[in-house]
Amino acid sequence: MIATVLAILSGIFWTITYLLIIRRSIQDKSVGMPMVALCMNIS
Q1: pLDDT tens sequence across 1-43
Q2: Torsion sign (Cα): 13, 28, 34, 22
Q3: What's the first-to-final CA gap in the chain, in angstroms?
Q4: Which of 4, 19, 24, 32 is the most buried (most CB within 10 A)?
Q5: Which element (helix H / strand E) includes 32?
């Protein structure tokens, strides 16, 4: 039960983090996160 809740919360917070990175990169008109870091994070 606790593991499931933590996994769901982790997914929600990572989604929020990526959305904020995208928002910031659009505002700054630059790369928000290096591609290598993104690939390593997803895998």
Answers
A1: 999 999 999 999 999 998 999 999 999 988 888 889 888 877 7
A2: positive
A3: 25
A4: 32
A5: none
User: What distance in Å separates the CA atoms of residue 20 and residue 14, rounded to the nearest whole number?
Assistant: 10
Would you state the structure tokens that stand for residue 10, as one six-digit string?
Answer: 């982790």
Query: Residue 6: CA atoms inside 13 Å, Cβ hemisphere, count?
Result: 3
CB 31 within 8 A of CB 25: yes
Q: How many CB atoms neighbour CB 32 within 10 A?
A: 15
Q: Which two tokens stand for residue 38?
A: 């993104």
Q: Which two tokens stand for residue 7?
A: 């996994």
Long-range (24+ apart) CB contacts under 8 A made by 3-8 are none
